[in-house]
Structure formats: structure tokens, C-alpha cells
Amino acid sequence: MSDAKDVVLVVDDDPANILVMSQTLRPEYDVLFATDALKALALAVERQPGLILLDVMMPEMDGYELCRRLKADTRTNDIPVVFITSLEEPEAEVKGLQCGAVDYIPKPFNPPVVRARVHNHMEMVRARRRLRQYNRQLEDTGRMVAAGIRYASRIQGAMLPDLDRLKGVVAETAVMWKPFDVVGGDFYWVGRLDDKVVFALIDCTGHGVPGAFMAVVAAASLAQVMRDHRQGDPAAMLAALNQVFRHLLQQDQGGPAADDGFDAALCVLDPERRHVSFAGANMHLLVAEPGGVKRIRGDRMGLGYATAPVHAQLTTHQIPLAKDSACYLFSDGIVDNMGGGPRPQLFGWRRLAEVLDQNRDLPLSEQVDTVAAHLAQWCGDQPQRDDMTLLAFRP
């Protein structure tokens, strides 16, 4: 800790007053003095005193004008100024305070009173210095955290699959992935499974950094499932994903682990047969056909939680696809958006289905953009509530 004394600048054209003030404040403070305003301005900039004790009546430039100049200069405007003067009129005190002074001490002054007031003001100065230091530390920490999150966003983006690798395998694919924060808890995956294609969407608990960590665990769990469980049954694959996720988070050991989990949907598409198998856990599938958009409901069950069944029993739906049919997996962040006018309500899956049905002849990429535009219009000034993902494919 530094032993340097706090600096007080005394500005008075009378050397006798400076001497008395110096004797009053020393040895507790390092006392500087100036007998005119210009010297006082220079000392204030150079030495940055913690407090300025200023006389009003001085030649060439009075204390009021000096105070105004100190407050107009960014280098000195946060230095508190206390007027010490023989002017007794209330108007003089008001004028001093209006110039930016924090206190007003009449002459002749009482040394113990001056010491007490200077002490109190210097305590406030020290508190402000500590606060500025803490703010700088917080700003530095905030910049480091923000930089780390931006870097994490690049990493998370790199984990997401490139849909272009399915060109020539399926007719079309498109995705809207919009985290609530810079990073998020939604994760989607596409890949080949022999002559079939797997589309998976996982919505982990939380959003932001915690959700992104959960998404990493989910991605690692899904990679293990795709390596070890290649039978192509979506329900069995989600059940295996449930077990692997619980094991990686040690939520299958009965200890005091956090109870984190996810909703998920998984489709196995056979492009040649124009057939899709679907299973969902608190997540559904929309299928657009010539007759409209229908919802294939997933099971009402979360996965991965410590309280989730060890052997999750899910349903696989077998869905033949007509020509030009399209399939859509979506996280609840889309349908849970609030908006629609002065009495906000949920966007809901029916409005999503309606938008998709009205634009079903558009390419999937344009459909996804249209959904995003409808959501923005629906929400208006309402903030986004959760991570949002819409994964679309056409066989």
C-alpha cells in the first residue's frame, strides 16, 4: 500500500492565510499553494490534488471564474472545490455552489472545523477513487469475458454442420439458428447414416454460456450415439442419447449433481423411399404437404435430467412423404415468442405452420427467412425470449 499523502491545493493571494491553512492541514496532508489563478490552474493539472481550497477575492481572476475553468477542463473537473472566503452574503455562497463548489467555509475559519470538513471531503475523494478503480477492473473483466464469449461463439459456430455437404443427397436444406445471447443452448446436427440422412435438433436447459456448455455436452453425447448406435431407429437413438448425456454429467450416480437436460428431435430420412422416421422428446415435427402442414407430436418427456427415466421409452413415427413435401424441426424458442399487439400472446406452433403453409412453394432458404421476418414483426418491441432454431429439409 502506498504511504503517499493526499494533496490539498490552497489558493489565496494572502500569504498569511496560506501559512495558517498550511499549519492547519499539515502533517496529515501534502499542502500546495498558489497565490493567483493561473498558477492554481497549472498546479491542478500537473499535481491533480484531491481537494482545492479556494479564496473568492483575488486579483485578475476571482475564485468564481477559476472554479468555472476548473470544472470546464476534463483534466480537473472532478477535483472537489471548497470556497474559503470572508464574503458572508447568502448570494455569494449560492454563486459559489452554482460554479461547481462542494462546500463553503466562511472566514475567519476555525481550524478544527476546517480539518474536519477537509477530512470528510477527502474520504469522499478516496471513495470515488476506489469506485473508479473497481469500475476499471469491472470494465477490464467485462472486456475479457466479452472477448471470451465471442471466441466461444466462433467455436460453437464451427461445431455446427455445413448443410452444403448434403447437396446431391437431399433436394434442399435450410436452417435458422439464432441464440438468445452470443452463444446458446440450441444445437443441430446433420449427417449420413449408411444410405440414410440424420437430422437432429437439441435444445438444452438454459441459454448463453451455461446453455452453450450444455450444448457441447449434448454434441459429444450425440457423436457417441452416432458412432455406437447405428440401427437407424430415432426412438432408440434418443434413448441412448439420454443415457450418454446423464453419464457425462454424472447425473446417473445419485450424487448432488445439477439436474440439467434437454429436449430433442431426431429424423432419419430415406431419400430414395421418400420416407422419414421421427422421434421427439418435448419437441415436434412439422410436415408440409399439398394438403397443408401437419404436426407430428413428440413424446412429453425431457431427456438427460437426473430425474429422467434411465431407459426412456419414446415413440418412433413412420411418415411417408409425398412429392415436394418438406419437414421442419423447431425449438420452443420460436413458438414461445411473445407479441402480436397490445395484449401479447405466444406465437405458437399453429402460426408457424400457417406461415410455412402460405410459403410452401418457396425454396426452403426463403421460407426460413420469411419465418424470421414474421417473428420480428410479431414480437415488435418484445425481446427474444430464448434460443431459436428452425431446421428444414426436403427429400
Number of strand segments: 17
End-to-end separation in angstroms reads 71 Å
Q: What name does the CATH topology of the largest domain carry?
A: Phosphatase 2c, domain 1
Q: What spatial form do the alpha-carbon principal axes imply?
A: elongated
Domains, number: 2
Which residues form runs of ≥5 with pLDDT under 50?
none
CATH homologous superfamily descriptor of the largest domain: PPM-type phosphatase domain
Helix/strand order: EHEHEHEHEHEEEHHEEEEEEHEEHHE
- Highest CATH level, the class of the largest domain: Alpha Beta
Percent of residues in helices comes to: 40-55%
Q: What's the arrangement of strands in the largest beta sheet?
A: 2-1-3-4-5
User: What would you call the structural class?
Assistant: alpha+beta
CATH architectural name of the largest domain: 4-Layer Sandwich
- Beta strand %: 15-25%
CA-atom Rg in angstroms: 35 Å
